[in-house]
From TrEMBL:
It comes from freshwater metagenome. This is Unannotated protein. One of its GO terms (cellular component) is cytoplasm. It holds the Pfam family Aldo_ket_red. The keyword Oxidoreductase applies. Residues 15-203 form the NADP-dependent oxidoreductase domain. InterPro entries: Aldo-Keto_reductase (IPR050791), NAD(P)_OxRdtase_dom_sf (IPR036812), NADP_OxRdtase_dom (IPR023210).
Amino acid sequence: MNAQHRQVADREVMPIGFGAMRLGLEGRPSADEAVRTLHAAFDAGIQLIDTAVNYCATPAEFGYDEALVSRALREWSGDREEISVVCKGGVLRTATEQVLLNGSPENLRWSCETSLRSLGVDKIWMYLLHGVDPKVPFEESVGALVELQREGKVQHIGLSNVGRKQFIAAQELMTIASVQNGLSLWNRASLPLAQLCAESGHRFPCLWPAWLTQSGSDEPGHSSYRLAPRPLTCTGSSGLGSGPNELDDPDPWRAPGLLGSR
């Protein structure tokens, strides 16, 4: 394996991925600009794309973000086999709420099948439980992912926005390919889980690993948000490592931000 790559399930990818959420939500760029953003990411060497069925502006658009990713891959001149797409299910939205947890087996199946259609594929490479719905037994949500995997709709399954207890419980129910939580210098709540994943050999993509805002606040900005010209690595006294089990998943607002300029 290339020393600069990370092994994620059955593939080797660069340690920095691209979170496509902002390409689908309110305030999003045009579809053409979103595709140019994704092409800029591909051309920069990004090999891991993160999306979800609920990354859209209205409930009538479920799968919008995934359809953008599909279009970008179709229109890209590079090798599409080098790009791995991670999808997530278990979160919906309403006209007024961006996050509405629904971890029922019925919704997870509908979300997965919507993602399959939006991506235009027969099987999703990696599918994650997007969040834990307190109204649904965790075992039922995990069991739905296992069933989708057994049916061949998804190749690998994993978790997102979970705690240590849920991670430990899930290990008894599924083969966890990846755990995706927020982790940065400003948000260390998931550091114990990241350390547990490192000890057990599970991949831990870090959401929002680093950001800069014009105001200097500790919250990600909107139009002011951009990545640094070079990827930032969480190391040193922060207690955050960039070990072989960690990947960064920055979520740039638009292509110039990805390239380090406005």
